[in-house]
């Protein structure tokens, strides 16, 4: 497994190196994804947009499908090792870039987890998939929770990897309007992205994580970056205003909660005092607290791991993941 992951990651990093210092389009046309990308046309708020997705069919199918939802600062590209491992086990793997993210359109619309969930259900219906195991990381965990509440019959099992929204940010993070967040997003630089990723996502920084920064910061050089920045602000507002933490008890399907115990993620952390930061975002406590709220939940914790276990400790994460499918 380790050798396969190393070869896969190395090949992907080589492809990233080709555009690491380039300006990236806000829909990542010049970013090579690990598998072919297709597009689903969607009409929303009088706009024609398109939703990018990878649909990876295994060589020896087991008849089951897994859908992966990415986090706010990412797209389908960071699921490479997970897709590879699941496909090898016979799973069909569907990996969308949510509207507003990755290779998908960046429209100015009212962003809501309800709307994003509906778009993903439309994707499954178009592909003829009736039921999935659903996994969401970070913001994708909030979306996966909302999807599971809206379409319980479509979700066989829910897997949440360090989901945000385990607490209601509105109760302790000062309100910022989308206009305020837009001004902050416009200040994005390579240095600011790397500093944020280093302090927020990983316990120890490694050079192989640089590709995440290259993609996250590369769009800031695009002439269309103001559009990207506004969408980023609107989706931050979505996270802030649309909590799911009060509805975990309503989940009826089996849930597996994967938690990096050193995760300290707080949406809007920069707006807090040091005293407030110390009170919140402690996943070592939030993980067990959340697991107790869910009727049928298994908690899997990773020691000395931050916000993205599938990137920071891929072998351990994939072993735990495949053992719980």
From TrEMBL:
Residue stretches making up the AB hydrolase-1 domain: 65-169
GO molecular function, one term: hydrolase activity
Pfam families recorded: Abhydrolase_1 (PF00561)
Cleaved signal peptide residues: 1-20
Record's GO cellular component terms: membrane
Keyword Transcription on entry: no
Keyword Oxidoreductase among record annotations: no
Keywords: Hydrolase, Signal
Source organism, top-level taxon: Bacteria
This protein's name: Alpha/beta hydrolase
């Amino acid at each position: 497994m380790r050798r396969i992951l190393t070869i896969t990651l190395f090949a992907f990093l080589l492809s990233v190196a080709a555009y690491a210092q380039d300006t990236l389009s806000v829909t990542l046309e010049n970013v090579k994804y690990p598998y072919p990308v297709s597009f689903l046309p969607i009409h929303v708020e009088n706009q024609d947009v398109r939703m990018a997705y990878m649909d990876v069919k295994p060589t020896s199918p087991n008849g089951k499908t897994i859908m992966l939802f990415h986090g706010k600062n990412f797209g389908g590209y960071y699921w490479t090792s997970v897709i590879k491992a699941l496909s090898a086990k016979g799973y069909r793997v569907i990996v969308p870039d949510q509207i507003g993210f990755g290779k998908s359109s960046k429209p100015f619309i009212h962003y809501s987890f309800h709307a994003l969930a509906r778009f993903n259900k439309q994707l499954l219906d178009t592909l003829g998939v009736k039921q999935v195991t659903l996994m969401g990381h970070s913001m994708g965990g909030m979306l996966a929770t909302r999807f599971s509440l809206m379409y319980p019959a479509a979700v066989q099992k829910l897997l949440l990897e360090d989901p945000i929204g385990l607490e209601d940010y509105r109760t302790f993070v000062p309100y910022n309007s989308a206009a305020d967040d837009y001004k902050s997003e416009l200040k994005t630089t390579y240095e600011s992205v790397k500093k944020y990723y280093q302090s927020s996502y990983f316990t120890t920084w490694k050079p192989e994580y640089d590709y995440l920064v290259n993609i996250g910061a590369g769009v800031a050089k695009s002439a269309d970056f103001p559009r990207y920045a506004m969408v980023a602000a609107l989706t931050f507002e979505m996270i802030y205003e649309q909590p799911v933490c009060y509805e975990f008890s309503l989940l009826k399907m089996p849930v597996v909660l994967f938690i990096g115990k050193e995760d300290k993620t707080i949406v809007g952390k920069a707006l807090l005092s040091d005293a407030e930061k110390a009170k919140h975002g402690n996943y070592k406590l939030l993980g067990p607290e959340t697991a107790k709220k869910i009727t049928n939940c298994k908690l899997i914790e990773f020691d000395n791991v931050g916000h993205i276990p599938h990137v920071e400790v891929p072998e351990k994460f994939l072993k735990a993941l495949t053992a719980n499918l």
